[in-house]
């Protein structure tokens, strides 16, 4: 150990610790955003708005159904049952009478006269 040279005491350069916080902050600051990134972001926003605007113009225009057409659609697609329809009606008996008249008109003879007199 005696052969090793003695080291001098380390001394910081004058004003080093005064300048150190500023140097650290300079290195820690983010570099400014490249100008092309700003233009690319603006282009993406404009294209996105244009796409939204175009899809609004392309939307199909659906025609409104009348209440009767809508009810028929629900019935035919088995969403509503006959009980559902009758429960919504003010006069379910009138609806049933109408159905019976449409299905079995009065002018149509269900039985022949001869068949009725068998007893």
Number of helices: 6
Helix content: 55-70%
- Per DSSP, what share of the residues sits in E-state strands of 2 or more residues? under 5%
Uncertain runs: none
The largest β sheet comes out as: none
- N to C succession of SSEs: HHHHHH
Radius of gyration over C-alpha positions, nearest whole angstrom: 45 Å
Total E-strand runs: 0
Coarse structural class: mainly alpha
What is the first-to-last residue Cα distance? Answer: 141 Å
Shape: rod-shaped
Secondary structure elements and their pairing?
Layout: H1 16-28, H2 35-58, H3 67-76, H4 82-88, H5 92-103, H6 113-116
How would you describe the overall organization of this protein?
By secondary structure, the protein is an all-alpha fold. It has six helices and no strands. The longest helix is centred in the middle third of the chain and has 24 residues. The N and C termini lie far apart (141 Å).
Supply database-style keywords.
single chain; 119 residues; mainly alpha; 0% strand; rod-shaped
